[in-house]
Amino acid sequence: MGIEAIVDKIRNRVESSGFDRSVKFDTGDDGVIVIDGASISTADAPADCTFKLSLDDLDSLVSGDLSPTTAFMTGKIKVEGDMSVAMALSQII
Fold first, then answer.
1. Cα dihedral sign for 73, 76, 81, 86?
2. Would the pLDDT of 23 be above 90?
3. What DSSP element (H or E) covers 26?
């Protein structure tokens, strides 16, 4: 699954979430997804918190096949920035 397909999969959740911070999912050469409040984009931009992970792991995370806690503890996700934003993201993902 590509970046655009993942964006399409989570767009409704993001737009209706009431989330008011910004996060970036950085999948390296596969691209980025930036959530800024209720908007979502594949254009790179600064964010309060950045998650670095593979595209496959992002897809598994969004699908519910990969637990965010497990991914973090096993090193599949690297988090940079405000950890409170990372915790608040659970309402969307």
1. negative
2. yes
3. strand 22-26
- C-alpha pair distances (Å), 79 with each of 16, 71, 87: 24, 11, 11
Report the distance separating Cα 72 and Cα 40, nearest Å: 23
CA dihedral 39, 65, 79, 10 (to 10 degrees): 0
pLDDT in tens, 34-60: 999 989 999 999 999 999 999 999 999
Helices (H) and strands (E) counted in the chain, each on its own, are 4, 5
Q: What is the pLDDT of residue 25?
A: 97
CB 79 within 8 A of CB 72: yes
CB 92 within 8 A of CB 61: no
